[in-house]
Amino acid sequence: MIQPFTAQPIRFVAEDGQPTQPLPERYTPELLRELHRQMLQGREFDRKLITLLRQGRTSFYAQASGMEATQIGLARSIRAGHDWVWGYYRDQVLALGLGVPMFTLISQCLGTNSDLCRGRQMPHHFSAREHGFVSISSSIASQVPPAAGSAMAQKYLGTDEITVCTFGDGATSEGDWHAGMNMAGANGAPCLFVCENNQWAISTHIRHQTASENVHVKARAYGMPGFYVDGNDIVAVMEVCTHAAEWVRAGNGPALVECLTYRVGSHSNADSDAEKHYRTRDEVDEWLGRDPISRIEKLLEDLGHPVSSEERADLIAQTHRQVDEDVRRAEATGQPDWRIMFEDVYSDLPDHLREQANFLRAEMGPELGQGGQG
Ligand SMILES: Cc1ncc(C[n+]2csc(CCOP(=O)(O)OP(=O)(O)O)c2C)c(N)n1
Ligand SMILES: [Mg+2]
Question: CA-based angle 240:136:241, to the nearest 5?
Answer without folding.
Answer: 5
